[in-house]
Design goal:
Elements lengths: L2 H25 L3 H23 L9 H29 L2 H38 L12 H6 L1
Helix pairs in contact: 1-2, 1-4, 2-3, 3-4
Length: 150
């Protein structure tokens, strides 16, 4: 495992715990959004599994949901970054400086996962469209017109 994969595992694990805490807190006020955050946290655990094992456990037809959850994580990281900047300016604590770094790292990991999911989805769609194509390439000798040209 490379250094980049190690960093991604650390930040995806951190995102998992942050999203579980957010889901628990928000579920009291809005259960639907709480469930979305809980599913996004499960997606982070799936990302850690994918990085560690090298296999993609999500079927292709569920990748659009994976993209939605990664977007939720990227937006959550962006709001964490804004919150940390506002509080760092107000309280001048090192905690908020570190939180701003962590939130930017979470956004970068989420964008990386989004680009990887789009790559997997486009490759699967390309392969499925190529296998259903009716066009074929035949030898030129099998056509009368080309035999006459020779």
């Amino acid at each position: 495992m490379s250094f980049t994969d190690t960093v991604r595992v650390i930040f995806n694990s951190l995102s998992f715990f942050i999203l579980i805490a957010i889901a628990y807190y928000i579920f009291k006020f809005n259960p639907i959004i709480g469930v979305v955050f809980a599913l996004a946290s499960i997606d982070q655990a799936e990302d850690v599994y994918r990085i560690l094992s090298g296999r993609h456990p999500v079927p292709v037809y569920l990748i659009p949901f994976d993209l939605i959850f990664e977007t939720v994580i990227a937006v959550t990281g962006a709001f964490m970054f804004l919150m940390s900047l506002i509080y760092w300016y107000s309280f001048e604590s090192w905690f908020f400086a570190i939180l701003s770094f962590v939130s930017i790292s979470i956004v970068i990991c989420a964008i990386s996962d989004i680009s990887e999911d789009i790559r997997i989805l486009s490759a699967k769609l390309y392969l499925s469209s190529a296998s259903t194509s009716k066009a074929s390439i035949a030898e030129t000798n099998s056509f009368k017109f080309f035999r006459r040209l020779k």
